[in-house]
From TrEMBL:
Family in the record: Belongs to the alpha/beta-type SASP family.
Keyword DNA-binding included in the entry's annotation: yes
Keyword field: DNA-binding
Free-text function comment from the UniProt entry: SASP are bound to spore DNA. They are double-stranded DNA-binding proteins that cause DNA to change to an a-like conformation. They protect the DNA backbone from chemical and enzymatic cleavage and are thus involved in dormant spore's high resistance to UV light.
PROSITE patterns according to UniProt: SASP_1, SASP_2
Keyword Cell wall biogenesis/degradation: no
Lineage: Bacteria, Bacillati, Bacillota, Bacilli, Bacillales
Source organism superkingdom: Bacteria
InterPro entries linked to this entry: SASP_alpha/beta-type, SASP_alpha/beta-type_CS, SASP_DNA-binding, SASP_sf_alpha/beta
Pfam families: SASP
Protein name: Small, acid-soluble spore protein, alpha/beta type
Length: 96
């Protein structure tokens, strides 16, 4: 999210970052409610979990209900993947 006084360079990036956040949370097994998939199953935490039927009895929660460590691990993984993606892009152009 852009801070005050800063403009977002690529507005479409917000949606991709949200998708990435929920994807990583699902990979880590965090039962976070994702409103994007509410039409698949009420309080579904991800598309993959809904397809696999792993939602029964998980008790999906909001981000605010997770621990700082859990939220931090998701943020850290997002950063790690973004850096890896940037490094791949730079290496394709031969500048890294």
């Amino acid at each position: 999210m852009a801070s005050r006084g800063q403009r977002q360079l690529i507005p479409e990036s917000r949606a991709r970052l949200q998708d990435l956040k929920y994807e990583i949370a699902a990979e880590f097994g965090l039962p976070v409610y994702n409103p994007q998939y509410a039409h698949i199953q009420p309080k579904a935490d991800s598309e993959f979990a809904a397809e696999l039927g792993e939602l029964a009895g998980t008790g999906n929660v909001e981000w605010r209900d997770l621990t700082s460590r859990q939220n931090g691990s998701v943020g850290g993984e997002i950063t790690k993947r973004l850096v890896q993606s940037a490094e791949r892009s730079l290496s394709e152009f031969g500048t890294l």
